[in-house]
Amino acid sequence: MKTKGWLLAITLVAFYLHAPAAYALVSVDSIGITVSDMDRAIDFYSNVLQFEKVSDVEVAGEAYEHLQGVFGCRIRIVRMKLGGEFIDLIDYLAPEGKPVPVDFRSNDRFFQHIAVIVSDMDKAYQWLRQHKVQHASTGPQLLPEWNKNAAGISAFYFRDPDGHHLEILHFPPDKGNAKWHTPTDRLFLGIDHTAIVINNTENSLKFYKDVLGLQVAGESENYGTEQEHLNNVFGARLHITSLKPDAGPSIEFLEYLAPRDGRPMPADEHTNDLINWQTRLVTSDAESLRKQLAGNVFVSAGLVNMPESKLGFAKGFLVRDPDGHVMEIVQK
Length: 332
Known about the structure:
The protein is an alpha+beta fold. It has helices at about 1-20, 40-50, 60-70, 120-130, 200-210, 225-230, 285-290, and strands at about 25-35, 50-60, 75-80, 85-95, 110-120, 135, 140, 155-160, 165-170, 190-200, 215-225, 235-245, 250-260, 275-280, 305, 315-320, 325-330.
């Protein structure tokens, strides 16, 4: 009996050592996109993609400077909703940052997009054509039958007015969240996930799964002419991993097994640069989670207490993942 007791104790210790902490990630609240012209961005996301404006605030002061790591910042932030998901459009009125590089490719490791679910791919593509969006794919791609985890999914990459990559996505009846298959007369339904290009899946899982507590929901290896023309990268072969939080859109890893020539996040990238995205994650204990993330690169000067509730949270900080993507960890 004593031996069994010791074995049980050892098992419990091992479980708690490897289990996500109680203060780990609760939800993906929103995805922040840095824009250069707020009125133009609002027009695009509302009139082209049918997002609805939820709030419009302008902030400045030391707390925001410490949070964003940009001195003297004044920021206009507009929250928009599609279905049950949110984006935050972030316009630095001062100081303005650098534009998206004209040679930006889908396998560069500063790539991030949101995947907007559509009820009809053909109609959605024609709608985007009518609004003269910039193509990032040659056209909608139907993923092949041999790829069991992705078969029947159709997708198309395009760009917003600032050059950010976006995706429209359509699931066949046997794939995707059940809510994407609810009958509706809407064309654009909501955000399924935000995708980020990473260098190494194992390293990224240590950050997102072991510390933040996201769970692996699925994996696939995608390649072939459809994937090449979707990403507009010749010879594209990707290891794709989907991670699910307790609530909100998933986070999807895109590890390019080939080609391996994607550029890393620029060393001088700041949150006011247009390649900056901020994925907001909600936790119940921001201070403890910040300690767990020691060793990563922090954007913020410590845990920042917000002097007002304009942004919808009481305290938070910005931290970079292993590839430099910015996560905004907040406590409400």
